[in-house]
Amino acid sequence: MLTLGLVVNPFAGIGGSVALKGSDGVDIRTQALAQGAVPLANTRAAIALAAIAPELRAKVRILTANGEMGERVARENGFATEVVYQANSPSEPHDTHQLVAALVEAKVDLVLFAGGDGTARDVFKQIDEAIPVLGIPAGCKIHSGVYAVTPKAAGVVISQLIAGELLTLREASVMDIDEAAFRQGVVRARNFGSLIVPDSLQFVQATKQGGREVEEMVLDDIAAEVIESMEPDVHYAIGSGSTCAHVMAELGLDNTLLGVDVVKNQQLVATDVTAQQLLALAQQDPEFAIFITLIGGQGHLLGRGNQQISPAVVNQVGWDNIHVIATKSKLKALNGRALIVDTGDPELDQQLAGTKRIITGYHDAVLYQVGIEY
């Protein structure tokens, strides 16, 4: 089940049709409505949601605000919908801030928002950098790179995510212009930062002759990303499997191929640890993190070959601090099947189901579905 946060800025783009060059501010909104402008943000959000096939909608839970900020359009398009924030009517930027904060608190898999560059800035102010976003273009100004090319395209990308296709994650800029200057014919753009967005992933098939060399280069890139991310004086558990073994080899450390080792300051501090030993180390270090890869031909993450990473360890470390590494070819071989968590604790397995960021190279990652063993 994909948990999707939905934010609709009902007045986004309202100044466009009446040549007001934007929609920022109560005065502009009031002037636009007085001139007969019709709010279209919900219409464009509906186009995006309608692009998601009915059979896929059953696999989505939408968290949003009441009324025109998302609830109405989500329910009208047949999605299971939960209101997590009560917005004012009419809504203001403050409502977007509060809604996004509520979605972050709820740990949604992705935030889908309809608006323009002003809305992107409002989302940027509150979003957790680990949560991907995708914009449905509905504003007068769309300079930011966080938007799909069309509302329908946004729905297609969400459909790909629900269907288990690989979506790469990339940074995209949040841009906005000075509307007052723009109305005087001056474009004065500013970069406010960046957000993580899902993007359709294109696969290039390698020839059989060069396949091994390509795979080894990818493993080098994954190891470089892992090693670069390691902070001083923090313990890192390195799980079992050949991809994890490659990380240890790049560190120049001995590795327990079918076990779990622990490093700190890029030095080996414990080998082939038990679940109790791992839990004790995690309890001593609040920054403790774990790197795992796919175990077995069915795409198991937990419960096959790495039982040392027990439910108690997962709860102590936190799912956000358990990082998955894998090559894209390994993920592609699953043919869209979800990665499996089978920790022995059904309640925990349910909590871990959703999407997970998978490190697939140097500064390269994808989102992939995680399910449970039935």
* Uncertain parts: 15-21, 201-213
CATH topology of the largest domain: Rossmann fold
**Amount of helix:** 25-40%
Biggest sheet details = 11 strands, mixed
Could you report the average pLDDT, rounded to the nearest whole number?
Answer: 82
Query: Please, how many domains?
Result: 2
Amino-to-carboxy terminus distance: 14 Å
Task: Output the radius of gyration.
Answer: 23 Å
* Topology order in helix (H) and strand (E) letters: EHHHEHEHEHEHEHEHEHEEHEEHEHEHEE
CATH class of the largest domain: Alpha Beta
Total number of helices: 14
**What's the overall geometry?**
elongated
Helix and strand composition category: alpha/beta
Give me the count of strands. 16
CATH architecture level-2 label of the largest domain = 3-Layer(aba) Sandwich
Instruction: Provide the β-strand percentage band.
Output: 25-35%
Describe this structure in words.
It is a single chain. With 374 residues, this protein is α/β, with parallel strands linked by helices. The chain folds into 2 domains: 2-200, Rossmann fold; 208-372, no CATH class. Helix content is 34%, strand content 26%. The protein has helices at residues 26-34, 41-50, 54-57, 71-76, 93-105, 117-126, 151-162, 179-182, 208-229, 242-251, 275-284, 311-317, 328-332, 346-352; strands at residues 2-8, 60-65, 80-85, 110-115, 133-137, 167-177, 189-200, 235-238, 261-264, 267-270, 289-292, 300-302, 322-325, 339-341, 354-361, 364-372. The strands form 2 sheets. Strands 6, 7, 8, 9, 10, 11, 12, 13, 14, 15 and 16 form an 11-stranded mixed beta sheet that branches. A 5-stranded parallel beta sheet has the order 3-2-1-4-5, with helices on both faces. Strand 2, helix 4 (71-76) and strand 3 form a beta-alpha-beta unit. It is elongated and about 70 Å long. It starts with a strand and ends with a strand.
